[in-house]
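Appendix C reproduces, verbatim, an entry submitted by the partner laboratory led by Prof. M.T., so that reviewers can inspect both the input and the predicted structure.
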Amino acid sequence: MKIEIWSDVTCTHCYVAKRKFEIALAQFKDRDKIEIVWRSFELAPGFVTDPKKVLPEFLRELRGISAERVQEEIDYVTNSASEVGLEYNLNKTIPANSFNAHRLSHFAQARGLQGEMEERMFKAYFIEGMNIDDISTLQGLAKEVGLDEAEVKAVLTSTKFTDAVNSDLLEAKRTGITSIPRYVFNSNSMISGVQDTKVYQEVLEREFAIWKSLNLKSDSVRMDGQSCKIGEACE
């Protein structure tokens, strides 16, 4: 059964949702029959990366709020992430254009390592303070998950997989996706935003039973939770 995950590596809620979904999947007895596909969604199309600027400064300028208020928001997100074992270090995070990261994700998918690549980029962005718009940085991360460094360089210094990313972006627009994370099960039921692990478990069980039976069709389901939207600070 296919599960499509619409996501952006710069989305705070996407990483938290990933962890919660992984907990649910680890407890699912038929997990070896699940295919996960990561789909591209840009939170900040056309954003110009400034590697000298970190998230607190960026948020102060974007919102015109005090450093104290920014820190309160960062602390809130950090504490929420810690509940699923993620140690966010948002004071080091470099806001970045994610288009190259999406291209790398598609290349990794072609090599059977998309899940590993997504995890590594999330960690680099939210925990290690790396610039995920920098080609040399992405090369190093790709090498760590087992991708060929020369192949990765050839991809990222060209326009390869640009069409694949743009195709996802157009599909998101066509189907009305305006926020992430979004999990689509069996091309039918949809979970939007971060949910409790139990919710992922319940939808997994139900949709897998439907997929397995083949001749049954469920009513579409939509559930909403915390998410990140285009043009808004992701917190």
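Residues 40 and 168 are 6 Å apart (CA to CA). Additional entries are available on request from the coordinating office.
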